[in-house]
Amino acid sequence: MRIGLISDTHVPEAGSQLPGEVYDRFRKVNMILHAGDMHVIEVLDWLSDLAPTLGARGNGDGDGSRPPFPEDDPRVKAVHVLTLEGLRIGLIHGHPLPEETPWISQAALMERNFGGQVDVIVCGDSHIPVVMWADSTLIVNPGSPMLPRNVKGPGTIGFLTIEAGVPSAEIVQLTSLA
């Protein structure tokens, strides 16, 4: 199973549409997970044309300065916990890396955010791509394809692959801005 990972698209502030390369790269995925800060629900609509898509509600989604997100859209939750290919996957906007919160364990954070241990955490918020293992949990932040906040250059997306119950992830540097 191959899952496209994306976060922090910040449409329309960072651009009116996703870079075309995102669509090209996600064309053959089984599912897409957006780790929040879409800013407009249409981002999920666009991605849903490629594959089933879920999104975590980010701190900039429905914050009052943008169009409100539909409360009854089942694609958008603060946290999704999915079981895919035998793995528990947590999708959330903000999840601190172990070195960012040495006073609390990843196990305690997972209990608070996901109701228990997950095998994979997909998160966003920082706009910085990360693939790392924290004990037995794979943490993936795909960064941002849009590079909001005046950062220059092409952004990033990610992929989560599950093969024989084993997760792996990669970050892909986009080659163009639009």
Which labels suit this protein?
Purple Acid Phosphatase, chain A, domain 2, 178 residues, six-stranded mixed beta sheet, globular, 13% helix, five-stranded mixed beta sheet, alpha/beta
Structure description:
With 178 residues, the protein is α/β, with parallel strands linked by helices. The protein has a single domain (2-173), classed as Purple Acid Phosphatase, chain A, domain 2 (4-Layer Sandwich). It is built from three helices and eleven strands. It has helices spanning 20-26, 42-48, 106-114, and strands at residues 2-6, 31-34, 53-56, 76-77, 79-84, 87-92, 120-122, 130-134, 137-141, 156-163, 166-173. The strands form two sheets. It has a six-stranded mixed beta sheet with strand order 4-3-2-1-10-11, covered by helices on one side. Strands 5-6-7-9-8 form a five-stranded mixed beta sheet, with helices on one face. It is globular. The mean pLDDT is 91.
According to CATH, the homologous superfamily is Metallo-dependent phosphatases
What is the number of helices? 3
Q: How many β-strand stretches?
A: 11
Using the CA coordinates, give the radius of gyration: 15 Å
Return the string of H and E elements.
Answer: EHEHEEEEHEEEEE
Overall form = globular
